[in-house]
């Protein structure tokens, strides 16, 4: 049996967590593509940290896998479309040489990278296009505490922003979502919104993971300067009143976390509440 080949792409726009997240899965990949904007700008036209990201990637890439794909992916009128196009360019560049492609964002930490290998095995058995994994969302950090999105009853919450594993040749929509049937691996007993709903016609759902295997999404869990830089250039930049949300919800969260309800910036019901834990737990 021919060994499956695995590729991955890294978007060179968000360097905050990259030196911790890329090493977690680097050992699994045979090819690594970075779609580099030649104008140094992100989807909204804001400058992004291209060179800083490349510096980190080259440091992690001890096997010399890095391949740069150049282009321009800026659409201030529709940054989500630019996001999707940049990812698609990376998938297209990888597809001739690999069987599966990892699309792990720079702020997503895999506590158990072996889950990706299991996901690929199940995807092959089921004949699906991609696999979604559960993600814990960190919203705010202080020296003493981490504030994490929770279910309405305070239990651990997960969300599914798109597949982390897709077949070579996949067609993407809405950032990294893939067209076609997919597998959603969930934590047994999870009561999050996206698994409380019945599975859709393209979804196969399997509750096989433990809470400790969920991806840690350091989405908003970063410094003030880093979060302001992120929201200026991300694919959903036009979907929220950024300044109002930053100062009214994110900034005071260490004091108001206990009262926040249904506080996602643009999706109703997705983030029911916050819970607080000590930073080193």
SSE inventory with pairings:
Blueprint: E1 6-9, H1 18-25, E2 31-37, H2 50-60, E3 66-71, H3 79-94, E4 100-102, E5 108-109, H4 114-126, E6 130-132, E7 135-141, E8 145-150, E9 165-167, E10 172-173, E11 177-178, E12 182-187, H5 193-196, E13 203-209, E14 215-217, H6 224-233, H7 242-250, H8 253-256, E15 273-278
Parallel strand pairs: 1-2, 1-4, 2-3, 6-12, 7-14, 12-13
Antiparallel strand pairs: 4-9, 5-14, 6-9, 7-8, 8-15, 10-11
Helix pairs in contact: 1-2
How would you sum up this structure in a few lines?
27% of the residues lie in helices and 24% in strands. The chain has 281 residues and is an alpha/beta fold.
Structure explained in plain terms:
By secondary structure, the chain is of the alpha/beta class. It has one domain (6-278). Helices cover 27% and strands 24% of the residues. It has eight helices and 15 strands. β12, α5 (193-196) and β13 form a beta-alpha-beta unit. It is globular. The protein starts with 5 loop residues before the first strand and ends with a strand.
Q: Tally the helices.
A: 8
Assign an overall shape. globular
> How are strands sequenced across the largest beta sheet?
3-2-1-4-9-6-12-13
Give Rg in angstroms: 18 Å
How far is the first residue's CA from the last residue's CA? Answer: 43 Å
The residue ranges in which pLDDT falls below 50 over 5 or more consecutive positions are: none
Q: How much of the residues is beta strand, in percent?
A: 15-25%
Number of strands: 15
